[in-house]
Amino acid sequence: MATSEALRTPEESVYDRLVELVFSGNYEPGHKLTERDLAEQLQVSRIPVRESLGKMVAQGLLLGGAKREGVRIRMYTPDEIRQLYEFRLFLEVGAARAATRYAKGEDIERLEEACKEMTRHVGEYGSQTWAKLDHQFHNALVQASHNKRAIATVRLLLTESHYVFYLRPSRQRRTPSAEEATAWMDKVQQEHRLLVDHLVAGDADGVEQVLRKHIAPQRF
Q: Is 5-73 in CATH node 3.30.1390.10?
């Protein structure tokens, strides 16, 4: 995370928790969100929930916002998914390039640990453990930039991308064979390993080259 829980204002904490709840995969696309239900789940008053929902609408994370329209989960079109991944690419590449200059020992350790853990789960297609580790790796990569603005913005994009790729219901998505899934997961892990190697070497161009191939709305 960009900041520790202890350093967040109450409003920031509610917002971050709400983002995680909304993109948890528990809501169907098009689902109408209610302040009362969300406030009860987060065990907070409705005021910070209302403010956080408004912020998410303004950021394009949710749809609606008019008084009688309500707020609902976005139903992503193929073009919206393309735009999401392109926007993420713009920012994550820049953060990763910065990380080649500013990464510290503990940043590399977090990335190395994520790689080791993901290796243990190659072949477990559909595993939420794999999905969380993939999310964790990219968060750690951006955090290594030590750019607070980039970290905060990309963290939202990563959460949204995680939802779109791993959690969003898709009738068009077919279940890959065991061989296809394992090959894809192995490729992801190899690219993660390359990113760490280039990062350690301070090779910004190498990091960018790998990341541009790596970030794509892949579908089976």
A: no
